TrEMBL record:
Cited Pfam families: CSD2 (PF17876), OB_RNB (PF08206), RNB (PF00773), S1 (PF00575)
Protein name: Ribonuclease R
EC number: 3.1.13.1
Gene that this polypeptide is encoded by: rnr
Entry keyword set: Cytoplasm, Exonuclease, Hydrolase, Nuclease, RNA-binding
UniProt organism field: Flavobacterium flabelliforme
Places the protein is found: Cytoplasm
Task of the protein: 3'-5' exoribonuclease that releases 5'-nucleoside monophosphates and is involved in maturation of structured RNAs.
NCBIfam families documented for this protein: 3_prime_RNase, RNase_R
Predominant localisation class: cytoplasm
Coiled coil spans: none
Length: 730
């Protein structure tokens, strides 16, 4: 074996940082100067003497401990070492986010030391006391955020590499020949990182699933699910278990429940819905008040704790609503049949029943298990027609039956009264500081092959608000009922908005002539509502709606009730959608447990379940957003030769983001592709400025663009800038 070459050093070289790093990586092991020299691949006398000197200096500074003569350990707690999370940029650098630090710490590429986005790491922070921006180096990856990645495989003679479309994944993944599996050149695959050897440039992995060819519809949808670790189908043993559940309605079970089958009951849902979570019942009482029942599918009756079906539902935690399909939390036998509150069928439900007066005040309340019979199923459009016209004949063009039909007088009367009561409830909420975000929801008309044929916008109307208000009422009253007993419960909480984000938002909206009142919490919510009203229907609406939503804290599940800022509720929970949300199932179980006189359950156990549910909800939301972006790109692929009017929705040093007004598709006009002048980024004006003309391209400006490139794999649109609105056609 040839002798390793010695590495000469410059006089006075300081090894302190490297010594700290070596000792930190083996925190419980003592090293002498020879062992440290070997780690650094240094064995010349001069280097060893410098190591001995640095060890003594570090020990004198109390940064390391001389555990025995000549042997050193890292000090157990060092103020320069922190644990936190990596936040990658798209430029192969990162920021280290730690609650113990006032600002995020920059991590250069060569200091990442194999850390990936959102990994939990230990970092050594330097430049803390020199008036410089702090920088750091990853000393240890404590916990990988994820080890499974989606990418395209490039197969060579004896190995392969998988590269991802994720801009925050800065490395490709090396696949040994024997771990390529069934993958073929250019396939989209799911790979698992197994190891990342210390001196390897790339992590080593294996192909665990072939998803298909890039650009194919099913491939890209399955790739979105796989990217977020979401399932696309149920394990066979779970499906088999679900099929064997007894879903019959029995007299013995009915006897244990409040029988509300004779009370007028109906559902209002989207026209394409398959799972009906909730129904409303309506009865006029002799005292002039109204008995209103909010009846929710009794999923917890069928879904027993400790079964493989319940374990699967908990792991999923939520249904995922992609642009062309639903990935349900529960198998279809439950979600679309046994639990779904379909018309003209008896169903087991968990109900919140209220006596409400003409002013929408709750006079009495009752919670418990019931059995119902739904008399009618409405689509939102049908209920809206009744509200707007007070007519009892649903016209053919909006009828879910395909032909016009008559609605009973009782149901028309109930719908109109529920609408009136809901409007009072909504007005009260707004007066108490609730914030309303009626953000435009983009939907696609798809053909039988899942190809987009058109775009439309889903807008909430009175019928949507009717259902929303009574669901909010049930959720609030259930949470209040348990919360006032001081027992462990699952709340849906929402913290106050982030003031820094609101200030940043103010900078942007000021360019459109709007402002936010920051004097107190109440003023902020009132001015946000006023802002939403002012921008309604204007070209900047979607941009400002998006900025406002981003300035808000994220709602989440917790056993620690801090209230719900956005709804202005002191108590709030999720009770009304157990077919598609696991927290609602837990709420049902806890409510029944407490109704039966049970003691308060273990808070820590349920907080863990809350955290898991919030995490899975976030992943599902990301997947849903990616699927919409994918379909937008797919739609625009077929419209490359058309001119579109768009509004500038973002400005950066590399170009402008433009949102097409007629379909809300967003893409980038790169600065190099704007040919009518030489543009530079003006940070103060949040604009691109022409060097010759002095003209600005700034947030909210309307411009004409044409599609330059539509990348389905990256889900990115690139536009060519054509001209400003005020400029003539050339």
């Amino acid at each position: 074996m040839s002798k390793r070459l010695r590495k000469p050093i410059k006089k006075g070289k300081d090894f302190s940082d490297k010594i700290i790093k070596i000792l930190s990586q083996s925190a419980n092991k003592a090293f002498n100067y020879k062992q440290i020299g070997a780690k650094l691949e240094l064995d010349d006398t001069e280097s060893r003497n410098q190591i001995i000197k640095d060890l003594k200096i570090l020990a004198s500074q109390n940064k390391i401990i001389e555990s025995e003569p000549g042997k050193y350990l890292i000090k157990a707690v060092s103020k320069d070492y922190y644990e936190g999370k990596i936040d990658m940029t798209g430029r192969k650098t990162a920021y280290f986010v730690c609650a113990d630090l006032d600002e995020d710490v920059f991590i250069p590429t060569n200091n990442l030391n194999h850390a990936l986005d959102k990994d939990i790491v230990k970092v050594y922070v330097y430049n803390k006391r020199q008036g410089k921006k702090p920088e750091g180096e990853v000393i240890e990856v404590i916990e990988r955020h994820k080890t499974d990645f989606v990418g395209v495989i490039d197969i060579q003679a004896n190995f392969a590499f998988v590269s991802t479309a994720n801009p925050k994944m800065y490395t490709d993944i090396f696949i040994p020949k024997d771990k390529i599996g069934e993958a073929e050149q250019g396939d989209v695959v799911l790979v698992h990182i197994e190891d990342w050897p210390a001196k390897a440039d790339s992590p080593f992995g294996s192909v665990i699933k072939v998803l298909g060819k890039p650009g194919e519809h099913d491939t890209e949808i399955h790739a979105i699910l796989a990217e977020y670790g979401l399932p696309s189908e149920f394990p066979i043993e779970v499906e088999t278990f679900a099929q064997k559940i007894d879903t019959s309605i029995t007299e013995s079970e009915i006897a244990k429940r409040r029988d509300m089958r004779d009370t007028l009951t109906f559902t209002i849902d989207p026209k394409d819905a398959k799972d009906f979570d909730d129904a409303l019942s309506f009865k006029k009482l002799e005292n002039g008040n109204y008995e209103i029942g909010i009846h929710i599918a009794d999923v917890s009756y069928y879904l027993q704790e400790g079964t493989i079906l319940d374990d699967e539902a908990y792991q999923r935690a939520t249904s995922v609503y992609l642009v062309d399909r639903v990935v349900p939390m529960l198998p279809e036998v439950l979600s679309n049949f046994a639990c779904s509150l379909r018309p003209n069928e008896e169903k087991y439900t968990f109900s919140a029943v209220f006596e409400i007066n003409e002013d929408s005040q709750v006079m009495n309340q009752w919670f418990g298990r019931t059995v119902i019979f739904s008399d009618q199923r409405f689509a939102y459009e049908e209920a809206q027609y009744i509200i707007e016209t007070k007519d009892d004949t649903i016209p053919e063009e909006i009828s879910i039956t395909g032909s016009s039909y008559k609605v009973s007088e009782d149901i028309v009367e109930a719908t109109l009264k529920l609408d009136a009561l809901a409007k009072i409830l909504r007005k009260k909420r707004m007066a108490e500081g609730a914030i309303t975000f009626d953000k435009v929801e983009v939907k696609f008309n798809l053909d039988e092959n899942g190809e987009p044929q058109g775009v439309y916008f889903k807008v909430s109307k009175d019928a949507n608000h009717l259902i929303e208000e009574f669901m909010l009422l049930a959720n609030r009253k259930v949470a209040e009922y348990i919360g006032k007993q001081k027992k462990t419960f699952i709340y849906r909480i929402h913290d106050e908005p982030n003031e820094d984000k609101l200030i940043a938002m103010q900078t942007v909206i000021a360019k459109f002539g709007y402002k936010i009142d920051f004097r107190n919490k109440g003023d902020i919510s009132k001015s946000l509502n006023s802002l939403m009203e002012q921008v309604n229907g204007k070209k900047e609406q979607n941009l400002i709606d998006t900025l406002a939503i981003r300035s808000m804290s994220k709602a989440k599940y917790s056993t620690d009730n801090i209230g719900h800022y956005g709804l202005a509720f002191d108590y709030y929970s999720h009770f009304t959608s157990p077919i598609r949300r696991y927290p609602d199932i837990m709420v049902h179980r806890l409510l029944q447990h407490y109704l039966d006189g049970g003691k308060s359950v273990d808070e820590e156990t349920y907080e863990t379940k809350c955290l898991h549910s919030s995490t899975m909800e976030g992943l599902a939301t990301n997947a849903e957003r990616d699927s919409i972006k994918y379909m937008q790109v797919k739609y625009m692929q077929d419209h490359k030769d058309e001119e579109f009017l768009g509004v500038i929705s973002g400005v950066t040093e590399w170009g402008i983001y433009v949102e097409i007004i007629e379909n809300k598709c967003e893409g980038m006009c790169r600065i190099r592709d704007i040919k009518d002048d030489y543009y530079t980024f003006d940070e103060k004006q949040y604009a691109l400025k022409g060097e010759t003309s002095g003209k600005l391209l700034q947030l909210g400006d309307e411009i004409y663009v044409k599609v330059k490139n539509a990348d389905l794999v990256k889900k990115q649109l690139d536009f060519n800038f054509l001209r400003r609105v005020e400029e003539p056609l050339k």
